[in-house]
Specification:
The chain has a domain of 198 residues: f41 fragment of flagellin, N-terminal domain, CATH 1.20.1330. The protein starts with 6 loop residues before the first helix and ends with a helix. With 294 residues, it is mainly α. Strand 5 and strand 6 form a beta hairpin. 67% of the residues lie in helices and 10% in strands. It has a two-stranded antiparallel sheet with strand order 1-2. A two-stranded antiparallel ribbon has the order 3-4. The protein has a two-stranded antiparallel sheet with strand order 5-6.
Length: 294
């Protein structure tokens, strides 16, 4: 036995301190749900975890972009469906105007309804937009980020369906196909229904416009399907990435509770043992007292 240094008590206290630290770590992990809280816990794993978190956030925003794109395509499809119905009615009226039993007043009434249909067509084209973006007023391509990494971009092509920009094509001096200004949907309003070939000319224009509208709707439909499949793939990839990030950073609560229970028992045992070991100097005092009395 030694009086100045109670080595037994010191050894017990050292182990007691270790257990306190382990218990504190277990409590921190249980309360936060994370086994890596600061970079010093595991520098390598926290670097991997942060990169995965960046990717997850990018994937989540890409999914919102794709959802917006799908919604935009749905808006376009609804407008194109209405436009197609208008063109079908104009075609019916054009065929009706070719009846030999029509009087001049009948032809004028038919022409007035055609003009109204053309104006309705123009209203739809001019007013169809999504979040301020006009869908049928210009020929252009706009990029959309559909992934979390560089280069994961899809170009969305917009088409100009203005009444003066759709109709029958002709070849210019360079052999390039251009719209014939005399055979556009807008020019249909200027045609005289009493002319002998009015019905044929109107049908030629309407069929050309219908072909353009159907082609545009088909392309937007394909784009809508692509958005849906892309959204599904992004969701699956995000889930996998989050699962991997969770395995790196999230705490196993059951395991941490076992560590907490174990360290609690060891701490209680340490307290009891320190209480016993701290009595050793008193035992020495009793020994010395016995020596003195002799």
């Amino acid at each position: 036995m030694r009086l100045n240094h109670n080595l037994t008590s010191l050894n017990i206290y050292r182990e007691y301190g270790k257990n306190l630290k382990s218990q504190s770590t277990a409590l921190s992990r249980i309360s936060s749900g994370l086994k890596i809280i600061k970079s010093g816990d595991d520098p390598n794993k926290i670097a991997k975890s942060e990169r995965m978190r960046l990717q997850v956030r990018g994937l989540q925003m890409a999914q919102r972009n794709v959802q917006d794109g799908a919604s935009m395509m749905q808006t376009a499809d609804g407008a194109l469906s209405s436009i197609n119905s208008i063109l079908l009615r104009i075609r019916e009226l054009s065929v009706q105007s070719g009846s030999g039993s029509n009087s001049d007043s009948d032809k004028e009434e038919i022409k007035n309804e055609i003009n109204e249909m053309v104006e309705t067509y123009k209203d739809i084209v001019n007013n169809t937009e999504f979040n301020g973006v006009k869908l049928f007023k210009s020929e252009q391509e706009k990029p959309m980020q559909i992934g979390s990494d560089v280069g994961e971009v899809m170009d969305i092509k917009f088409y100009d369906l203005s009444a003066d920009k759709v109709g029958v094509y002709k070849l210019d001096n360079n052999g390039t196909k251009v719209i014939d200004d005399n055979k556009t949907l807008e020019s249909l309003k200027k045609m005289d229904p009493k002319e002998k070939d009015f019905a044929n000319r109107a049908l030629e224009i309407v069929d050309a416009v219908s072909e353009k509208v159907v082609d545009t709707r088909s392309k937007y439909g394909a784009l809508s399907n692509k958005f849906e499949s892309t959204y599904k793939n992004l969701g699956e990839f995000e889930e996998i990435t989050q699962r991997n990030e969770s395995s790196l950073r999230d705490a196993d609560i059951a395991e941490e509770m076992m560590d907490y229970a174990k360290t609690s028992i060891l701490i209680d045992a340490g307290n009891a043992m320190m209480a016993q070991s701290n009595k050793f100097p008193q035992d020495m005092l009793r020994i010395l007292e016995n020596v003195r009395t002799r």
